[in-house]
Protein 1
Amino acid sequence: MIARAARSGWLFWGSLFAATWLLSTYSFQLYKALDARWIVRYPKAWEMPLEDHISAFLDWLVESAGFYFFSFRDLTRAISALIEAPYQVLRNLLVEGFSSGVGDAAVQIAPALSWIAVIVTIMAIGHYARDWFLSVLVGACFLYLAVFGQWESAMVTLASVLISVPIGVVGGLFLGILAYRVSWFERMLRPVLDLMQTVPVFAYLVPILILFGFGPVAALVATVIYAMPPMVRITIVALNSVPTEVIEAGRMAGCRNRQMMWKVLVPSAVPTLMVGVNQVIMLTLNMVIIASMIGAGGLGFDVLSSLRRLDIGGGIEAGLGIVVMAIALDRASQAFAERSARHPLDGNLLQRHPWSGTVFLVIASTLILGQFVPAVQTYPDTLTITTGPFWSNTMEWINVNFFDTFEAIKTVILQWLLLPVKKFFAGIPWAWGIIATALIAWRVGGWKIGLLAALLMTFIAASGLWPKAMVTIYLCGVSVLIATIIGIPLGIWAAESPRAGRVILGLMDTLQTLPSFVYLIPVVMLFRVGDFSAMIAVILYALAPAVRYAAHGLKEVPPPLIEAGLMSGCTKRQLLWRIKLPLATPHLFLGLNQTIMLALSMLVITALVGTRDLGQEVYIALTKANAGQGIVAGLSVAFIAIITDRIINALAAGQRERLGV
Amino acid sequence: MKRVSLALSAMLAVTPALAAESSDPIKLTLHDWSGQLITTKLMGEILKEAGYNVEYVQADYIAQFAGLKTGDLHVAMEIWETTGREAMDEAFATGNVVNLGETGLQAIEEWWYPAYMKERCPGLPNWEALKDCAEEFSTPETAPFGRYLGGPVTWGGFDEERVEALGLDFEVVHAGTDAALFAELEAAYQRQDPIILWVYAPHWAPAKYDGEFVEFPPFSPECYADPSVGVNPDAAYDCGKPRGPIWKVSWAGVGDKWPGAKKAIENFDLSNADYGAMVTEVDLNGKSVEDTVAAWMADNKDTWSGWIAK
């Protein structure tokens, strides 16, 4: 009887929801009736003093931990010097120019590359990688930076990207290879990667600053930590999916292990590996804003300081600067991956290397000419344009004319959606919250995941962060719901009509690389400080994966199945609802998963407009330089992410099994 | 242009780095508000004139204390009494960070309203007027209570306590950052909508928008500590916020390594008026920080050469 009840899904979910709802609604009365305050508030006495332990451990690590001859900090400082050296060279090359001596005594040896030289170089790379079209595209992207007066900042950002992307890619590749070869290493690495991706960056900024010193290097290290995990994951997947025939062929040719890896496995995995490179570039550029808070400077700093003086146009221009740089770097790296080997050209040195020759000539001639004509060296200020006033005026016009409409919409959504959901989650007694999460996880994914969920949720409660965790879940939950409702139809549209698809997916790329801070401030102007503004910002940021995975999932439906549908006389609508969508559900789940991850990672940013969730806790810890508090709150965010990830993966796996794909 | 002037100053560098002192660069921290960039660049340029090598490092306002303690960073030009007290005390206690005195700037933090609100709430700026017209400041979420937009929770300020103690029918809503704070002010000002919020000076906002600070009963330490003091005999915080200086803070080793530079930093003294004028130039008139600083230095040569003379 019980077994049957447990098997019948409706009964299980229905009774679970009913119990939660009852407890949530009447928890306060329950507490009063039983005089048991612990029902609604986790008792202070049971809290773990984890924050203090972590802070103390970090203090020890920084101040006294050591190996025989050197301290831990010497080690991190040595790494920091190792990164700083090439970074400084790039900065000299792109921004400051080379000089000897320090400060006023410095004598300039050579100026930085002129803007013309950089643009020609990048165009040459574009043409070398693919064709004239790409060359013009990347050239135009960089020209934007010059024309909008962002050259110097952009070059600072470019220098840090050119350091952190290779470290992320190569480091990720090696970790991935190691994990592929050694299975216990992979098992150990997996949870670490989960944490690297889900603990908000703000949470570990303070320890990184202490260990790696203030300045750009700390920012580079934080960027690499954030951007590397996808590369590791994709390397593992890519190596595992190399066809066995290829490996067999390698073995027959007598490859040794090392040759097998570098001559056979890695080259045949390159197309997939490039997806990882793309992710590293995108995530690196995502970090530009946060990195600028701790000393990276560049475009991120321009965005921040523009918005601090409410120069919305300036913020948008600098933000778009980051977007165009992402586009240029991404397209160029993709082209390199797809580039097929060409025949070497004949002729003399210059004829054989037309592009290297041109680039060399341009660099040399602008170097000399730049000494006499400053405009060649530095893009002249008088020729820069700005759209700042346009944006400010548009914003003012919208604000003055449409505020009341927005206010009305906002009030309705607040009253009917946000507040009831908030009340529901906030009311759930912590003990039941843990049990319910464990039950859901167990039901969907088996007892192991159930146990994991119970442990992680207990950690959150025991850190005294339960109420903030509930606000987090409510805010993310509502945002993800709305993002999915908007995103999946957009994704379907993009898949059905290629022309709409290009526009929609391009828009999504922009939304993801445009620093969220840029649209956060206009959102606050229109919707005031509060949960609603936070929700809009989260939706805007987390929309992209919902759209992208839906579009991808529909395109991946095997053509024979569609043929079969057409043969049996499906209408277009039936084809979509009966065949394409059900078959795309695993992809839709993946998209949902990513939407949730992005929503959670956006939390720290929404704390900047004043939410009272875990993101705020992390942000408070950062501004107070309390490393322990930051890490505990960061872990709590990560744990919520990990539980949802496991549950959704289990759902997707179940669905895949049912579909037999 | 900048490069040319740099090259020129390199050639004309007749004042070599003071022989006895280190030629290592003195690292000054930059944060993300213009005023701080101005004071820091001003100090940096003056130190350069005195023959020191100077490096500017971007650092977070509070997180920088970790660097000041270890000597990674050397000088922070603006630590506000109102927001930095806790961090300063903690850092001074370690003995690795020292106070180099006041910048001459006085920080004001208080409830602030745009001038057009005076028509709707006639008794202002006296705080008692807020008792009767709280509803003028309400929004759908807070009605019938007035909505007061406070600073980020990390700024403290005891506004919830103040509202309680003074019996004001206001709900305190916290902005997450000051960018969000002023974004709301800008939007409300454009629409001439009611708003009352936390504004601080010196800042560009009081210069750009026409308005006033609310006049609460003046702050005293006793008012915060002792419930019986003040208008409400049963509650503390029944008064305005403290005002206080903005401090200059440095790594303790600065005095040994660059004794002259330490003196120059200690001598640095700027008035709210000069500072306000420079902030307005940068934030409202779109001038660059460097040009603004150079202009001030050209106009006030006697002042700053006095700072580096001894």
Protein 2
Amino acid sequence: MLVKSLKRFAIAPLLLALASCATAPEEKVSLLEQVKSRGELRCGISGRLPGFSYLTTEGTYTGLDTDICRAVAAATLGDPDKVDYTQLTAAQRFTALSSGEIDLLSRNTTQTLSRDSGGGNGLVFAPVVFYDGQGVLVSKDSGATTLEDLEGESFCVGGGTTTERNLNDVLQARGISFEPVKFETPQEREQAYLDGRCAAITADRSSLNSSRSGFENPDDHVILDEVLSKEPLAPATVDGDDQWADAVRWTVYGLMSAEEQGITQANIDEQLASATSGADQENAALRRFLGIEGDLGSKLGLPNDFVVQAVRAVGNYGEIYDRHLGRGTSTFIPRGLNASYTDGGLHYAPPFN
Amino acid sequence: MVESPRSGSWSRQLLLRIRRGLFASPLDTLITVVLVVVCGGGLWNLLHWAVLQADWAVVLENVRLYFNGNFPVSQIWRSWSWLGLLAALCILTLMPSKVVPPAVVRLLPLLWVLILPIGLLLLASGLGLEPVKSRFWGGLQLSLLLTLGTILMALPLGILMALARRSELPLLRWLTTGYIELMRGMPLIAVLFFGQLMIPLFLPEGWTLNRVLRAVVSLGFFMAAYMAEDVRGGLQSIPKTQLEAARSLGLSPLLTVALVELPQALRTALPALANQCVASLQNTSLLAYLGLIELLGISRSILANPDYLGHHLEVYIWLALLYWAVCILMTSLAHRVERTLNVTGHH
């Protein structure tokens, strides 16, 4: 309820309109140029999401979301460490972008029509970096495998979020009665579930996964196969700055394309040497991709070897994924939709031509 | 060891007192037993958990983050030295007045005002040090910085508003009354959201106001309204006859306020003001919900580290201890000031 009333307070469209009137529509310098002349990328992150962005013991940020920031910094500035991170809450993130406090929002933001459109939040989304979806976590003992098995049960859910609405929509459509029990934070939700106040938790599958890994016996709990919603999480930039949006978009595509071609952080220099004066000298597509030939980078306003810089800094998309969400990490999420299209997933980079 | 008869009678007296105080009647006995069982059981469970079940690695491995935030490691001495200076100042203030030279005692208020600018110089830049951006400020250090900033801004503003509220100029009186009532009628979190979300939109293009500064400004404006009311309470406790006496002595209105009214009013308002200071430390934790990495915020970031998943109980108990320790320190400082003022008041 608090969040709801605050949202109403924060999103006063009238005030937004007033603020945009007050600033004269002068010729703006692209954020790409601003980032280059500043020598630093200002990136908005959550900072509180296991696997996506969190603080290490050394006091640095790490995670899938922060690696996207690092890749963009490497592509634009040649140095992945030149990132100025700002922690943002869900309510602040769009204001921070539109007021120019940050250049790039890499904070598990679901791409939706109203966030994309000028009549809404006026964002430009880069390619989806993580396909999430709302899931349901139950204890193994309950024996539930479908939502129908949970008929009449109570669900622990975040109050006032889209999660609650999705649950309502899906269960009502299927005629399943249920009782929502609302909580503000994931911790409260987990505790209530563990105390037996509800039979299931519903949240984004990535968040359920990290909840489960924190439980004493993670194997006693399962995430159902059913997915209640589509949550494509994508980095975003502000509307009306095509040059900057393109630079971010193609940096992300570069990471995905590198995975498709088997170019990794470990073999990038080898590949570069081979394409420059080795076995791959005749491979024009690879030479273009690595910036040895042609001017793909400079068309975007980036160095021609921007992909090389990004991959050398953080690895290809698959490597980023494995580092933070792969098997062996405590936030393991099977790749599923997040595999490259060559492995049956959804990540598919357009040609670098 | 041989027990002397004196100590024996002493222990017997103690037993007697215990019996009289705790087991005087069957009802008293029942209440005592129930309380001991409930509290003791709870405490035992907590201890059992803390010693045997809890994994304190999440606290022990991140001590630096809790205290200094993610301040650059090469510059961390600056953060520690500010916290050290602050601790030294606390100790100096709390020491018995006989031990500390009077000259130092007189300097203390000035030192307390100066500790904030010194902190800013040390932490941000200046003195030829490498600049460190405010996004690297975090943990307890940021909480304390926010608290000090809030108090130093709210206290003078509150005093001015308390005086303005009693002013004979109607416009000034109405404006301050309106402001105070407005601020008191709003929840702090709404004011903070306004500060973090609205101020950037109203600033001209290309202007940015630091997030920490925005937080201090919002907290300060909010606290000032409450402090104004506390000071006004103090002002009202002064009998009118004193003002008449001051006037008949030929003191100007300004001098009457400065020499007669304020010293007494502030002394009366001191317990309430100290209360507000402690509250303002606790209020800083709300900023965790606005993306600042003060003590609570940074703890939430640490909890997101996959290595420490599920250890929030340990972290929150540690935080409770830390906040409690700082609050106790603040209240004892306030007691100290109260005592000092009362002594001088009797002279």
